[in-house]
């Protein structure tokens, strides 16, 4: 058997490559080529390698590429099997006068022929060849050797066929194919473009696993692509715009890549472009915004101009797409523009270290207002049949981001849309699994082929909570929300989310958005308590909410790192207790006593005495747990003190319970131990309010305060009301 004969036998693989275009019936193939069956029989009856070589050569000569179909390929496989190709791939001795890769080339050609059959491409005997095939991609050799090039083509055909099977990507990744493809692409040898195409497919199918197995190699490819993108002056830069989002890692993007990507995008978007050129660039920018926020945009004049340009282009695209009724919306592009608008909203509301200057912020807010108007116009036309479409979810998301920061503009339009938003949120809440699936579809639609991160929460209601928090302060929007049943929906949502944080659930794996959502719900309820107290008294859902608050606070105040949520729960519960004071649940039941004991713990531990060098008197300071979050906590604390004060005369059992907790005694002791000058007037007023109500409500409280030198302390702090109360019998 000569080297030339071996090469001719290898052409069988090429026949397999083209066979998918022609699928005649087997009897038709036989009638056109009657000798084929004789040669297949010889192949089946071959007793050694030499006879198999000869039979393969005969089959190759008898079959033209256009005549081979899937059934014929399967018959060739049945005749050859995997044992012969396996030996060809692993042998290290070639016939005299042949390069050492010729036998391997023939083995790969046979596998390429077999892999044209999807069932054979998923066969274990093909899958276990993945590591061997992967090594062929980076093997050194003469780049002009036709046989070597043919083997590389066949190798890519095998790997591509495996990638097309259901579990193929996982097997390729485990077999080291991703690293081999990266090295083949970076080497820019023969077939490197096929390496890139297969890499794109694997990343689209299993991004997380690819990065886990081959992060250094993929980062090297990203560096190469980013550098090419930055330097490109021809149409290839638009093709790279489409490829690059797939190569951005799930972790940190290297700074040099961000620099090159930003520079390339600035040059593209700063030019006059057609939509097919501009849209991939906008989608790449959106992917970067999703992955890095604004960190990829340089600080300074050039960066601020670039960001302003990005947001401006995004707003124009949104308006063009949504304002023209009857035009087909390019949902993937518009959703990417939403991500860029969201970046603009974040930068316009950032007080410190913003990339934008104040005049730019004013201009962009005006432009984004017009784009949000277009979003509202679109949502007003959405019927029930479209509510589960991912683009609607994306549109609600950007509106929620806008309303979280701005509710004064477009007020009329927002009020007009509120009934739809409540119905939409309710629909997705009641079908929570579909809501989560929608979130993933939105991420796929907009910027990434993979599941979303925490910035894409899986329910519409969470997106709307910040905006509704602002709107419940205003009479008109609040009345609409109440009329449409939003408070009841919010109560159900709060109770559902609270279950995720209850004992028995691993809170360490919960995204921060769950706790933030609970806090925002509390803020909305606080607004309703203040502005619509009658609703709290008559709607049964608030009774259920009160019961949950009472049973949850005792354990919540003991949990490290959850003080802010505990403050929200305590303050909301105290304010609601004042309105629901006649409820049986608040008449000294174990749950109510446990709640108020926990509330006292929260209120009493905020401040401590601290000695100061060179002074006989200590000063009043924040306790360590409260100090770091006092800016977010202090309003709740003062409101909680005021609410507790209001509960004392309404709940006769509360003053004796407070006395048993020793809070009034310890509070007077604390005030007596520190310098009055260290206690701010608002603190003095808050403390006096609680002490006065406790003293008025219960004789034993008055006596305990007198024993704690309460009159003297009241005099030192000029607490006239407390001093007078304690002086009375």
From TrEMBL:
- Signal peptide per UniProt: none
Q: Name one GO cellular component term.
A: postsynapse
The UniProt family comment states:
Belongs to the neurochondrin family.
GO terms of biological process kind: bone resorption; neuron projection development; regulation of neuronal synaptic plasticity; regulation of postsynaptic neurotransmitter receptor internalization
Which named protein is this?
Neurochondrin
Q: InterPro entries in the record, alphabetically?
A: ARM-type_fold, Neurochondrin
State the superkingdom: Eukaryota
Q: Name one Pfam family in it.
A: Neurochondrin
Q: Which SUPFAM superfamilies match?
A: ARM repeat
Origin species, per record, is Neovison vison
């Amino acid at each position: 058997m000569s080297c030339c004969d071996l090469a001719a036998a290898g052409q069988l693989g090429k026949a397999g490559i083209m066979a998918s275009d022609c699928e005649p019936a087997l009897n038709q193939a036989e009638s056109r080529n009657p000798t084929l069956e004789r040669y297949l029989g010889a192949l089946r009856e071959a007793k050694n390698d030499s006879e198999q070589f000869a039979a393969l050569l005969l089959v190759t000569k008898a079959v033209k590429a256009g005549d081979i179909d899937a059934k014929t390929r399967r018959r060739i496989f049945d005749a050859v099997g995997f044992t012969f190709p396996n030996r060809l791939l692993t042998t290290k001795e070639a016939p005299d006068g042949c390069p050492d890769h010729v036998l391997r080339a023939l083995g790969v050609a046979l596998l390429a022929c077999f892999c044209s059959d999807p069932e054979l491409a998923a066969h274990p005997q093909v899958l276990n060849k993945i590591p061997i095939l992967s090594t062929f991609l980076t093997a050194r050799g003469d780049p002009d050797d036709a046989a070597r090039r043919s083997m590389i083509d066949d190798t890519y055909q095998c790997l591509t066929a495996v990638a097309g099977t259901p579990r193929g990507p996982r097997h390729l990744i485990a077999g080291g194919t991703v690293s081999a493809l990266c090295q083949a692409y970076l080497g820019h040898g023969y077939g490197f473009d096929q390496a890139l195409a297969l890499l794109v497919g694997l990343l689209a199918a299993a991004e997380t696993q690819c990065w886990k197995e081959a992060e250094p190699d993929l980062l090297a490819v990203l560096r190469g692509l980013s550098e090419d993108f930055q330097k490109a002056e021809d149409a290839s830069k638009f093709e790279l715009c489409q490829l690059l989002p797939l190569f951005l890692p799930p972790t940190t993007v290297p700074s040099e890549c961000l620099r090159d990507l930003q520079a390339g995008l600035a040059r593209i978007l700063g030019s006059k472009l057609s939509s097919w050129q501009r849209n991939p660039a906008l989608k790449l920018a959106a992917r970067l915004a999703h992955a890095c926020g604004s960190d990829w945009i340089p600080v300074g004049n050039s960066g601020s101009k670039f960001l302003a340009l990005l947001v401006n282009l995004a707003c124009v695209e949104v308006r063009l797409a949504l304002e023209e009724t009857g035009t087909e919306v390019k949902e993937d592009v518009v959703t990417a523009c939403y991500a860029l608008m969201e970046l603009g909203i974040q930068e316009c509301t950032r007080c410190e270290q913003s990339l934008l200057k104040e005049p730019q912020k004013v201009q962009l807010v005006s432009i984004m207002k017009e784009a949000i108007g277009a979003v509202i116009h679109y949502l007003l036309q959405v019927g029930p049949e479209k509510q589960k479409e991912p683009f609607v979810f994306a549109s609600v998301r950007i509106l929620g981001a806008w309303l979280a920061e701005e509710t004064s503009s477009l007020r009329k339009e927002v009020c007009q849309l509120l009934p739809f938003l409540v119905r939409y949120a309710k629909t997705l809440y009641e079908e929570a699994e579909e809501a989560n699936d929608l979130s993933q579809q939105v991420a796929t639609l907009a910027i990434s082929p993979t599941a979303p991160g925490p910035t894409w929460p899986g329910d519409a209601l969470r997106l709307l909570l910040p905006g509704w928090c602002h709107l419940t302060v205003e009479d008109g929007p609040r009345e609409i929300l109440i009329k449409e049943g939003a408070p009841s929906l919010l109560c159900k949502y709060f109770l559902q989310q609270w279950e995720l944080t209850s004992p028995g659930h691993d809170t360490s794996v919960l995204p921060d958005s769950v706790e933030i959502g609970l806090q925002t719900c509390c803020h909305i309820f606080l607004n309703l308590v203040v502005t619509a107290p009658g609703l709290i008294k008559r709607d049964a859902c608030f009774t259920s909410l009160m019961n949950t608050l009472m049973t949850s606070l005792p354990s919540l105040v003991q949990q490290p790192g959850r003080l802010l949520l505990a403050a929200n729960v305590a303050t909301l519960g105290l304010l609601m207790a004042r309105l629901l004071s006649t409820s049986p649940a608040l008449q000294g039941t174990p749950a109510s006593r446990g709640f108020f004991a926990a509330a006292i713990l929260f209120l009493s531990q905020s401040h401590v005495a601290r000695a100061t060098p060179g002074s006989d008197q200590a000063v009043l300071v924040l306790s360590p747990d409260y100090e770091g979050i006092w800016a977010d906590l202090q309003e709740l604390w003062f409101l909680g003190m005021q609410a507790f004060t209001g509960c004392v005369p309404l709940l006769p059992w509360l003053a004796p319970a407070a006395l048993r907790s020793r809070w009034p005694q310890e509070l007077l002791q604390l005030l007596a131990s520190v310098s009055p000058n260290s206690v701010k007037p608002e603190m003095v007023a808050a403390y006096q309010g609680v002490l006065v109500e406790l003293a008025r409500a219960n004789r034993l409280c008055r006596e305990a305060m007198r024993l704690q030198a309460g009159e003297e302390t009241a005099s030192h702090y000029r607490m006239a009301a407390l001093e007078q109360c304690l002086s009375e019998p």
